[in-house]
Amino acid sequence: xxxxxxxxxxxxxxxxxxxxxxxxxxxxxxxxxxxxxxxxxxxxxxxxxxxxxxxxxxxxxxxxxxxxxxxxxxxxxxxxxxxxxxxxxxxxxxxxxxxxxxxxxxxxxxxxxxxxxxxxxxxxx
Length: 125
Known about the structure:
Layout (H helix, E strand, L loop, with lengths): L1 H24 L2 H7 L3 E6 L8 E6 L4 E7 L4 E6 L8 E9 L5 E10 H4 L11
Antiparallel strand pairs: 1-4, 2-3, 2-5, 5-6
């Protein structure tokens, strides 16, 4: 009976430690100690006069609507979480010349795909 008592009295400590580890795994301060900063730049190279509308977000951050004029860019940066599960996706649209609106949704950054494969350049070039 003595060993069972010690086991159950230890469980709250284990539970609290797990909560702290899970909380810190999503902290950019803690992640920044292990990973370098990830930088993402979107560039509008559609055609002169075309404005690219983008709305990017992750599970934790909604970066809002941005309108990028032709030949201009929009930039943001972040740190991956400790479990390499960071994912940003963007919805993009623009009006096609003489035609309908073109739109799509893309995974712009997926840590498990991009962090080690691309290093500091995730441009796909």
